[in-house]
């Protein structure tokens, strides 16, 4: 018997069979994984599979977790007494072993295992960069078929661990991340492999929530504050959902961590909506031209999980959190500060998170004695390159207006060539 079921956050219905879906009645509310065991349990073994709150039964791969440690360097600079850093990346001297250098590796590991156990034969994944690398790596390791769709504008920042990756990668030449999501959905219809589902996929959110599991395991309680850079917001929602489970458990605190979430200005649709007290995003804040002006393309989705029930708006509201806008210069300063204070390089999105933390402390939204969890969602790329070569992504190109025939031709060509 399964140790979890799937429940609708809005109407409370339990669904027998649901994969990346909404409830039958409620098309505007996320489904939640309900674990039968309300107590947080860590089993034997290494890595993330020791946690009981993951929607998998028999994991096929070894998966290292986040490194959570108490900061002295950055904490000292900011005057914080209880700053904990969840470092998701490569920093072997400290015990951080994610060679893809991103917390999306947890998402990929849990999503692929959950898909396999649901009888899914392959998945279509849309990505602005780091998710692609994580899925390509896990697909190569586990042999689970994945087709990846990325926007051309993100290729400059993309790399794979595997040379000549066997994972088909298609680049949308004339569109952004959101166009890639649209194309990925069309490829799903053509191939019969499902689209990985974005925020609707419970395995994705629970996988990203591993950061909260590891943090509470290390700290012994829920933090007062949780700080992260957000693109779709899926990682922050995953952290919030795990925090709700810890409150239900009862042994780790009674209050949700306040979410302090950051976006890179001038593309910050969730921040602008939140500032106006709006559950809906505004079209002028979703202008694709703004995306070319930000340094963190991985945060560039025009389809964030903000308005949906159980999404970012709700998570901010019930946690008493807030949104922050971060200019490019502050992103670079955050990266430099972290390198100087903690001794490891960050990706730009993590620079956003560091800038948010500084801002929240300056504004008094975070007090010196509060327990803070800073989610460093990616880092150690420069450190990795000292140990291992990384490789350019060599995709096949297609248009955002590609027809079904175009997609079929391209995949036939690609699969013949690469498999
Ligand atoms: Zn429902």
How many helical elements?
Answer: 13
This entry's quaternary arrangement is single chain
Query: Could you tell me the mean pLDDT?
Result: 93
Question: Which structural category fits the helices and strands?
Answer: alpha/beta
**What portion of residues is helical?**
25-40%
Separation of the first and last Cα atoms: 37 Å
Gyration radius (Cα, Å) is 20 Å
By DSSP, the count of extended strands is 14
In this entry the ligands are:
zinc ion
Largest sheet: 7 strands, mixed
* Topology as a string of helices (H) and strands (E): EEEEHEEHEHEEHHHEHEHHEHHEHEH
- Overall geometry comes to globular
Beta-strand content estimate: 15-25%
Could you name the ranges where pLDDT drops below 50 across 5 or more consecutive residues?
none
Task: Based on the model shown, name its key terms.
alpha/beta; seven-stranded mixed sheet; 13 helices; binds zinc ion
Task: Describe the SSE topology.
Elements: E1 4-8, E2 14-15, E3 31-35, E4 67-70, H1 73-78, E5 82-91, E6 96-97, H2 104-117, E7 123-126, H3 130-142, E8 146-151, E9 169-172, H4 177-191, H5 202-208, H6 210-219, E10 225-229, H7 234-249, E11 258-264, H8 269-275, H9 312-319, E12 322-326, H10 328-342, H11 348-363, E13 371-379, H12 381-387, E14 396-398, H13 404-418
Helix pairs in contact: 2-3, 2-5, 5-7, 6-7, 10-11
This protein binds zinc ion.
The site of zinc ion (ZN) has 8 residues, from loops.
């Amino acid at each position: 018997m399964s140790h979890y079921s799937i429940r609708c956050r809005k109407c409370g219905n339990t669904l027998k069979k649901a994969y990346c879906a909404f409830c039958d009645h409620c098309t505007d509310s996320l489904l939640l994984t309900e674990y039968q065991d309300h107590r947080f349990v860590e089993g034997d073994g290494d890595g993330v599979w020791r946690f009981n709150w993951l929607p998998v039964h028999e994991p096929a791969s070894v998966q290292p977790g986040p490194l959570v440690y108490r900061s002295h360097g950055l904490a000292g600079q900011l005057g914080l007494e209880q700053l904990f850093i969840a470092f998701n990346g490569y920093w072997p001297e400290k015990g951080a072993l994610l060679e893809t250098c991103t917390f999306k590796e947890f998402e990929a590991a849990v999503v692929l295992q959950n898909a396999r156990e649901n009888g899914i034969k392959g998945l279509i994944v849309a990505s602005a960069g780091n998710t692609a690398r994580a899925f390509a790596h896990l697909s190569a390791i586990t042999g689970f078929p994945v087709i990846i769709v990325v926007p051309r504008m993100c290729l400059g920042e993309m790399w794979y661990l595997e040379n000549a990756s066997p994972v088909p990668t298609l680049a949308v030449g004339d569109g952004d991340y959101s166009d890639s999501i649209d194309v990925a959905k069309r490829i799903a219809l053509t191939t019969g492999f499902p689209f990985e589902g974005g925020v609707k996929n419970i395995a994705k959110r629970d996988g990203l929530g591993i950061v909260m599991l590891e943090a509470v395991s290390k700290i012994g309680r829920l933090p007062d504050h949780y700080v992260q850079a957000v693109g779709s917001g899926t990682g922050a929602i995953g952290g919030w959902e795990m925090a709700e489970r810890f409150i239900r458990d009862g042994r780790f605190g009674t209050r949700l961590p306040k979410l302090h979430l950051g976006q890179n200005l001038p593309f910050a649709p969730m921040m602008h909506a939140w500032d106006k007290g709006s559950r809906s995003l505004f079209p002028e804040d979703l202008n694709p031209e703004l995306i070319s002006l930000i340094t963190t393309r991985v945060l560039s989705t025009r389809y964030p999980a903000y308005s949906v029930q159980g999404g970012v708006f709700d998570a901010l509201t019930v946690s008493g959190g807030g949104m922050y806008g971060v200019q490019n210069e502050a992103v670079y300063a955050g990266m430099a500060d972290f390198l100087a204070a903690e001794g490891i390089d960050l990706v730009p999105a993590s620079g956003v998170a560091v800038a948010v933390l500084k801002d929240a402390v300056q504004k008094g939204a975070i007090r010196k004695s509060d327990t803070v969890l800073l989610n460093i969602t990616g880092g150690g790329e420069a450190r990795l390159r000292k140990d291992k070569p990384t490789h350019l992504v060599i995709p096949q190109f297609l248009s955002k207006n590609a027809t079904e025939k175009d997609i079929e031709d391209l995949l036939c060509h690609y699969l013949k060539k690469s498999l």
